[in-house]
Amino acid sequence: MQSLNFKTPLKTYAINDDENAVIKINTTDFGLIDRLKNLVERTGKIADKYKAMSEDKLNIDVFIDFDKDIRKEIDYVLGEGVSQSAFGNVNCLSICDDGSMIFENFLNCVVPVILNDVQTAVANRSKHIEKYTNQAKRLTK
Predict the structure, then answer these.
(1) pLDDT for 33-74, tens place per residue?
(2) DSSP secondary structure string, 70-120?
């Protein structure tokens, strides 16, 4: 089978300094910022849906469904498989030492890093475009 080898804009991040647990995100994707903006709102709506349930309806199936819903949103925004790499087989609602859920800690960690990398990518893209714009200007003189 012939292989196609080309540069991709995927950036690799290690989860908790574990080089075997990595996520890859395209920080140059123009739709990423829009999806990120809506992620917090959508995960909040999912959480509100479950918070509104009466205690007698809360059972293990509810927590499994909640986990699936949150993972689906994270994978939609950041890329397929990101939630599995970040959380493994642990339910993303699991509570951390500080009382927050794992998925909350993950989002609070990853979003600022991605936003910074997106800003860097935009700056690099501007420099790249400027190079060609300057060449075109010289040709028209």
Answers:
(1) 889 888 878 888 887 877 777 888 888 888 899 999 999 999
(2) HHHHHHHHH-TTHHHHHHTTS-TTPBPTTS-BHHHHHHHHHHHHHHHHHHH
